[in-house]
Specification:
elongated, 683 residues, binds magnesium ion, 28% helix, six-stranded antiparallel β-sheet, binds guanosine-5'-triphosphate, 18 helices
């Protein structure tokens, strides 16, 4: 069938995105099977799909990173990037999107998943990526299938355009009418749909649905609008041209139907991609690529493979890349390409040089990272895009199970972070902890699984230590005398300290007012050292802050005094003083900003009272219709797994950011428990 004459040619790169578990990996499998890249369509249940081939994805039966596979359809190469649907792995999707020509948003007709769909569409809208909706699982459809646009439209800022309507055998969807082609098809399981006559009820419904499709197109085409008003049937080519142009300009978002498990609607989707999705040239333009003579590529993801070493999955945007092509990023040399590989999920196959438009894995680019813009010329291209990971929301402290692996753990973590830049590491020297920060429980669990399975370092993990402190409420003047006479050379240091509480946030000050040299100048720094040492562990077991110590008196001995003796004297004074100064626990309080759909805002109240949170205010979220911002203050200890509850109250889409605000006194039972736990841990 001749469609429009303006279709893009050459290799394409298409993202499969969509809410959690909507069927993206299954759709990839169906596409690969229908286009002959694989012999049999595997299933996620059987664990034999091309996508989700990693041990972690198989174990959890969900996508935990992108899977990339290339196939050919009617003479063109198509690389699909199957993205995880879980919000915790969304960075993989966000980093891949700049490289794709278009996205297929796989979704279900489920109101509960509309907020997630909205988040994903947002990302595509912001990055101006042309997108189709593929309404999957229509084998399970019920009467609501008539309501497609009503249910899904709120998720999209651009107008949804129904391209197909279902036809029925009894209650079940048995086929569809393509509104652009004006043809009816009956689905065949794992086979090409069969054309059937368009007649009766289906024909009536087709007329109405086609008219509303054309009306939507006419919003952006005055000539078409006139034709509709004058009741002139627009030429078929014009309709296809409009469909294509309005998709490419992100003016509309066409909706196709199908069932990935049965491979229904898959060829129609491929044809829509073939005829309507833009190609590399338009993608390069979208990214603002200024092509010279030299090759350029964008790194979708870097991987550390068990056998092939480091690999960079990259879209070639300009020129040709082969063995030996040397790249640089705007910041550094990226390395020299050793091998160009075709990807098929977890497997890869060495191939010849790659041309503009192709998506391949490039071997051994040691200093290339996810999201890098690679240029082969002398002059590096400015970054095409910068995709910053979302701030982390959950932390876990990890340590190598065996001491001997400590160094290896550091190297493994570097690789882990290169693969997933939405994970970060914070060292807590005070608690001797390495803390992994990330986007959620599953992501961090998968991270530790990777450390052990992929990088060979088994780890144990635990909750990170909260940064408690303690301070004093009462002043005191305290003498500390260290004296030892054990034959020969003795030790002698004697100090008097004036100790006072300071206002919150002041830290520690040390001053002196020594008259008449009762403590010689040269020993005073040692006294301060001793004091500081003692303040590392106060009577409650935590570092002591907001305290002033003034050295006001003391004595020395010409022979027996030493730096060490004065250090010990300072330490002793603090040690003896603090328990008498009404020590009190301080806990870190954070300012937390929760964002959530407005219907979940009320639930945040309840959530806060259970977590010692204090609501400071509500606001609408700027630029996000139907969303709110809730500002709260909350103890660090309670933020620990806050994300789990925020997500469960918001169908997975709520999130938050936080920053340290102040230290607050904590007394009563909670404080007693914290102190007891600390004592037990130290014992
Ligand atoms: N009935 C029906 N089930 C489907 C269809 N497509 C996928 N599924 C099922 O939906 C579940 C999720 O499928 P996946 O392909 O893993 O979904 P996904 O979108 O890749 O999931 P994530 O990547 O984890 O977000 C599996 O149990 C599939 O068998 C379909 O067309 N019809
Ligand atoms: Mg998947």
């Amino acid at each position: 069938m001749a469609q429009n004459g303006t279709r893009a040619t050459g290799p394409r790169c298409i993202a499969l995105v969509g809410p959690f578990q909507s069927g993206k990996t299954t759709l990839l499998e169906a596409i690969l099977a229908r286009t002959g890249a694989i012999q049999r369509q595997g299933t996620v249940e059987a664990g034999n799909t091309v996508g989700d081939g990693s041990k972690e994805a198989r174990a959890h039966r969900m996508s935990v990173e992108i899977s990339v596979a290339t196939t050919t359809f009617m003479g063109d190469a198509y690389t699909f990037v199957d993205c995880p649907g879980s919000i915790e792995f969304v960075h993989d999707m966000r980093a891949a999107l700049p490289a794709v020509d278009a996205a297929v948003v796989v979704c279900e007709l489920d109101e509960k998943k509309v907020p997630q769909l909205q988040l994903i569409l947002r990302e595509l809208e912001d990055q101006k990526i042309p997108r189709f909706l593929f309404l999957n699982k229509i084998d399970k459809a019920d009467a609501t299938i008539h309501d497609v646009l009503n249910v899904l439209q709120p998720a999209s800022r651009s107008k949804l355009l129904l391209r197909q309507i279902p036809t029925f055998a009894g209650e079940l969807v048995s086929g569809f009418v393509d509104l652009a082609l004006e043809r009816a098809f009956v689905y065949k399981e794992q086979a090409r749909s069969e054309v059937v006559p368009l007649e009766g009820d289906a024909l009536d419904r087709e007329k109405t649905a086609r008219f509303s499709m054309l009306e939507t197109l006419a919003d952006h085409d005055d000539e078409l609008m006139e034709q509709l008003l004058e009741d002139i049937a627009p030429p078929r080519d014009k309709v296809f041209d409009d469909l294509s142009r309005e998709l490419r300009e992100s003016l509309v978002c066409p909706v196709l139907l199908g069932a990935a498990t049965r491979s229904n609607g898959v060829l129609r989707l491929m044809k829509a991609l073939r005829h309507e999705s833009p190609g590399t040239a338009e993608t390069a333009k979208r990214l603002g690529l200024k092509g010279g003579a030299d090759a350029m590529a964008y790194v979708i993801k870097t991987l550390h493979t068990a056998h092939g070493g480091k690999m960079s999955i990259a879209r070639i945007l300009h020129g040709q890349v082969g063995d030996g092509t040397t790249f640089q990023t705007p910041e550094r040399e990226a390395g020299r390409t050793a091998g160009v590989f075709k990807l098929m999920g977890q497997t890869n196959e060495k191939r010849g040089p790659a041309q503009a438009g192709e998506t391949v894995a490039l071997g051994k680019l040691d200093h290339a990272n996810t999201g890098d813009t690679l240029s082969a010329g002398k002059q590096a291209h400015a970054p095409l895009v910068t995709v910053r990971p979302f701030p982390p929301v959950l932390a876990v402290a990890v340590a190598a199970k065996e001491r001997k692996d400590d160094v290896k753990l550091g190297q493994a973590m570097t690789k882990l972070l290169e693969e997933d830049p939405s994970i970060s590491i914070v060292h807590n020297p005070e608690a001797h902890e390495v803390v992994l920060w990330g986007q959620g429980e599953m992501q961090l669990r998968v991270a530790t699984e990777r450390l052990s399975d992929r990088f060979g370092v088994p780890t144990a993990s635990h909750k990170p230590t909260v940064g408690y402190r303690e301070t004093i409420k009462k002043p005191i003047v305290q003498r500390g005398r260290h004296r030892k006479q054990s034959g020969g050379h003795g030790q002698y240091g004697d100090v008097v300290l004036d100790i006072k509480p300071l206002p919150r946030g002041s830290g520690f000050t040390f001053t002196e007012e020594i008259k008449g040299g009762v403590v010689p100048r040269n020993y005073i720094p040692s006294v301060e050292e001793g004091v500081q040492e003692a303040l590392k562990h106060g009577p409650l077991g935590f570092p002591v802050v907001d305290i002033a110590a003034k050295l006001i008196d003391g004595s020395y001995h010409t022979v027996d005094s030493s730096d060490m003796a004065f250090q010990l004297a300072g330490r002793l004074a603090i040690h003896d003083a603090l328990p008498q100064c009404h020590p009190v626990l301080l806990e870190p309080i954070y300012q937390v900003e929760i964002v959530c759909p407005s219907e979940a805002t009320a639930k945040m109240n309840g959530l806060m009272s259970g977590r010692r949170g204090q609501i400071l205010g509500f606001d609408t979220r700027a630029g996000w219709e139907g969303w709110d911002v809730v500002r709260v203050q909350m103890p660090e200890a309670e933020i620990g797994d806050l994300i789990v509850e925020v997500r469960s109250a918001t169908a997975g889409v709520g999130s938050f950011t936080f920053k340290f605000d102040h230290m607050a006194e904590l007394t009563g039972r909670t404080a007693d428990q914290i102190v007891a736990a600390r004592k037990a841990a130290a014992a």
